[in-house]
Amino acid sequence: MTQTTDVTQESPKAASASVIAQHAATLTTLPFSDTGDFDDAARGFLGTIENAKITSAQGRMVWSLEPYGFLAEETAPPTVDPSLWRQSRLNMHHGLFEVVSGVYQVRGLDIANMTLIEGDNGVIVVDTLTSIEGARAAMELYFQHRGKRPVAAVIFTHTHTDHWGGARGVVDDAMLAAGVPIIAPNFFMEHAVSENIIAGPAMLRRAQYQFGPFLAKGVRGHVDCGLGKTMAAGGGGVVAADRPDHRDRRQAHHRRRRVRIPDGAEQRGAGGDAFLHPALQAFEPRRELHAQFPQSAAVPRRRCARCAGLVEISGRGIADVGRQGGGDVRPASLAGVGGGSGSTP
């Protein structure tokens, strides 16, 4: 006996009356006439790749914003929340941007950004995107507009794959053998492996629901995921980070459990162009660092102790609410950075 199952194929629906009413209320509640964010998103633009199109050596599409051309319309359609539509349009800005003199970002070639800081000995690359192909395209775009210069150091700010997966598009074996430092939070490899290999299959399946990569692009399908467009599809791999100067593992383990940031700022690599600060480890991700670049007075930071996620949809870990809420807790010590002797109260 053969059992047959009737599977109804659902197609995207038009917006219901209640959804339309809710979106109309959003338009009257929030200041959509304020377009300052669009000016900020375009500021410092130097150049880009057409439609942010990146392909692999085999011709496979790794990344492209061309399917999102429908976002050229300023007015949100009935099926899309106006705030999401606005954010989706902001995320269409792509290419190389000058943040301040000597500090540049590649945006819109991945769900994450790559930051490039020009120092005395070359360029420091902060976060290498998800894919090798995307990172390589980002570096080529930077060199095209700023000239070829050596990579002085690579910094992984935290353990999420979109911030280190493309490392091999930035450094090769010869560069690593020559001593280009790879800098990351303490216990970076342990948490990167835990998140992406041990929990890898579950994480990938969760990401497919979170980012919706299999939805058709369009006003009744995929428009954005808020943080950026979607997941990059290229190759990737981790490059082991240099071990921070933390005396020994026992002391590092003790520091991992502390709420307060260790005294002082650690100055490492790139001819002294960067000061690194361990971030408060009550966050998700569990391993994170912040950096300060004195020459440009730039402090790239992902989050602060007051706004980190508490219970993450990713399932990677639960942030310690009590430790985040302490009155004297700050995510990084910037006191006494010039002399490397400051401390967090």
Folded structure, characterized:
- The protein is an alpha+beta fold.
- It contains 9 helices and 12 strands.
- The protein has helices at 17-29, 36-42, 82-90, 132-146, 173-177, 188-198, 200-211, 249-257, 321-325, and strands at 45-47, 54-55, 61-63, 95-100, 103-107, 114-119, 122-126, 151-155, 182-183, 266-267, 275-278, 289-292.
- The strands form 3 sheets. The chain has a 7-stranded mixed β-sheet, covered by helices on one side. The chain has a 3-stranded antiparallel β-sheet with strand order 10-11-12, with no helix packed on it.
- It is globular and about 65 Å long.
- The termini are far apart.
- Mean pLDDT is 76; it is low at 244-272, 279-286, 303-316 and 318-345.
Summary, kept brief:
The protein is α+β, with helices and mostly antiparallel strands. It has nine helices and twelve strands. 25% of the residues lie in helices and 14% in strands.
List its traits.
345 residues; alpha+beta; 7-stranded mixed sheet; 25% helix; disordered C terminus
Instruction: List unreliable stretches of 5+ residues.
Output: 244-272, 279-286, 303-316, 318-345
Order the strands across the largest sheet as they lie in space: 1-4-5-6-7-8-9
Outline: globular
- Number of continuous helical runs: 9
Percent in strands: 5-15%
For the largest beta-sheet, the strand count, sense and barrel status come to: 7 strands, mixed
Q: Roughly how many Å is the radius of gyration?
A: 22 Å
The succession of helices and strands, N to C, reads: HHEEEHEEEEHEHEHHHEEEH
Helix content: 10-25%
Distance separating the two termini: 74 Å
